Predict the structure.
Amino acid sequence: MFPHPEMRRSSLFVAAVFLQALGLPSGVHAQAYLGLDATLSSPYVWRGVTRANGWVVQPEAFVSLKAGGGFLSGGAWASYELGNAGPNDLSDLGTGNAGLAELNYWGQANWSLGLIQASLGGIRYTFRGTAPTAGRTRADNTTELYVDLRGTSKYVVPGLALWLDVDRVQGAYVEGSVTVPVLANPLAAPFIVLITRAAVGYTLGQDVNSEDPSQGAYFARAGVTHMDLAVSTDVTLRPLRVPTVLRFEGHVQFSTDDATRPSSARPSDARRSGKLWAALALRLSPPIVSW
Amino acid sequence: MVRARAPVALAVSLVTSGCIAYHELPLPSPTSARPVPAALPGLRAGFGRADITPPPGVGLAGNGPEGRRAAGYRVRLYARALLLEDRTGERVAFVVADLAQVTPNLQRLTAERIRDSTGIGADRLVIAATHVHSGPGHFYAERQYNQSTSQVVGYDSAMVEFLVSRLARAVLDAQRDLRLARVAWSATAVWGHTRNRSYQAFLRNKPEWTPPAPVAPGLDATHRAVNPLWTLLRVDQRGRGADSAYRPAGALSVFAVHGTADAPENELLDAGIHGIVERGLERHVDSLSRRGAGYHLVANGAEGDVSPDWPVQSRCGAPTLRPVVGPGGPRTPPPPWEWRDPAPAWMGLCRAAARRYVNTAGDSLAARAAALFDSLGPGLRGDLRVGVAFRTLRLKGDARLCPYPEAGSATLGGAEDGRTRLYDWRLFGIFPVGLEEGGHAVRPNPHDCQREKRVALGGLQRKFVVGEHGLPEVAQLSVIRLGDLLLGVVPAEVTTRAGALMERAIAESAGAAGLEPRAVTIVGLANGYMQYVTTDAEYGEQAYEGGSTLYGPNTAAVLAEELGKLAGSLARSGASPVNPVDSLVAYPGASLTILPRRTAGPPAERVERVVLSQACAGDTLVVRWRDLYPGRLVPADGPVLRIERVAGERWNVAAWDGDRELEVRAVRPRGARGYEWEARWHHSASAGLFRVVLVARPGLAEVVGDRVPCAVRFP
């Protein structure tokens, strides 16, 4: 049932035009937002683990309500694997399959507390794979709660996120990060900012439980899972009425956990200590209701 | 690899093909008519004035990336003109405009408009800027300045026409006002209002600074490191018809001080300290002459490193790049980082502190100017001799200067008066990249014409940012004789010591040719703009001014030499030498629509002008009303509103728009019904019943608001 690529492109175009039409004048103080974004990524890497080494598109829709100095948001996110996975490929759907691999539902509150920004929320992961020995199936569905804190200093922005699985995996994953802006143009549109980020993943129970091997796990052993160095550039397209951002990011990952090492299903790629990946995202978040 | 190169190639092609477009505009070269003695022998003088306050929506030029879009206006901007003609028919016209800079295109186009009526061409027309940093931009002859003098980017030929038509009107009004006149000039030291903002660079000069006047006691070193002389030419005019008495009419002042008293975060068109000083003396002249309007032109001097003595709490701090909280969730691409202003409450406090300083410093300086004006009464004479020497210096290609203009990295961080968001920016927060004054802005191994200057972006600046004609390539220079006062007119912001160097060159050349001036004064920011000029020694420090000395360390010496030559030719001629006016070309970039047009919104007959609300909050009367869109409503066209206070049965005018305590803002469009405007008037000195009157304008009847009680709130 995967839609034809041409249909998908035209749908995105129609959606973009629709959101443009919805955009309120910039002077209006908006309170509710409709968000639409899509990320094109290859490979698809999640917490250092290569989930699919082909092209993946990840659309998302959400609604946000501005409340006080923060936002209450809820939305759905999906991951589509665009190409049929071969026997040497990593895929959530398994060999020979393409299409919807993952669907997430989430709710979040985020707000600013002076020099700290905080996010608190929950996310439900559901999977569409049908191959029980390769990829992820309904049996892997699970739920996590999370808290994400980051500073807002001038140069170095530290961040700390804790993800606690309360369903199938029953463990926590911690990610510490440091974000440093490199440059941003001060004047003319389009506004461009170049940012670097270093992140380290750490598992506290999301690794294999030797006492209960049937419990879900994402990593092979406890401890540091990987280190990710990223460069991203955001281009804010001001001529459009709707706030629109084009984001490109490139990653270099150093893997320390056996689950984060493979870059494909080939045996020769199973013990990689590093990998590269990139993603391109388009984000639109127009205000739709104001009062 | 092909894919990796593609975006780079695209970026390069965009820069080279799209951004650096010159749009070459040849400028006229009007030459003055030969002097013809007037029928009435004696000195004649005339004054004129034109409002140049544009509608809100334009960028406020002068603070680079921190220059805001104008939300409204406070003290109106004017161009004031003084035309002098001596008994031999020698003429010169001075115009001082409440602008950040004046450009060759404004000067040449204005000269063309007035040439036939006044006989004054580009060689006898001096248009100087007060250097206020809250006037409009978008008129520059050089593309790079249209791209970088405010957050609102671009050139607009309509802005040029808006300004030129009014500059010309001011001169033509002065021509119509020409009458027999008596003048006197003097200079007095005004200490304590200014200080040297680049003191380390100033200290590099040898020999040490000898102030031109005794230093007032109690001043610290930075306050002593300035030229404190306020030079004022008083003009009294004979009355018209049977009124043969000579009465005070106006004055031309020259005083070195940056127009940076308003906070860089100011969002209103405003004449700043210079506006307060201009009006202060004009009111004084009115009170003396009882003939109506007085005139006060306040030109700037060698102010390159001279700041007003603004209090530290008047600077809000530049925006910083920060992550933002935005709509979305855990899997949403994060919102982009943004340049964020300091907290709104802080911004309000520092803007208010800056306004208080502007008013108090302006009042104090106006009082000094009035005292100087009064002291000149006994010495008024009608035998002033006028002379002008003028030339156009080609900077680019002059073997004494760097072959092309380049800005230093110190320029990007801004001066102490208004640091930009880039100031002291470090790569990864650790490695300095020269966005500072001195320090890493100084090249450790000076090796080419620009010597110590670390050129911003290196070779990329010229190739991809500025281009071939993006920065100024000529300097129009003049030496003007007003009796025994010589004015050296330069299109630049020269530092105190560079100004002294030029003044000395003028005095020595004139003296060698037999003309002994009593004083020489530099008039800066006139007839063009080539940024800053420091001395060779100051240049080595690479403070903001050195980084902004575009043609290298020898610039001050070259300008001094050229001004000396002009002074010599002026002295030898006995009047004015032959002054050729060379051809000039402007390269402003493509013209955009930035100045709101007269077609904006519905026409007057479809707009119901009405007062929407009136309320007093503390010491502020806030009025909102519906009116025409900015563009159809142009403040320069005339008064917009007045505040009236009841006294018994009568309503007396308490304030007009343009008053320093009255802020007018364009708030929001109301579709086909018009545009919502707001006026905020601080009435701390008075309480009572007030009302607003929207002044009748073409197609719009007068509207009177309801009466509003306002009380004084004491802290």
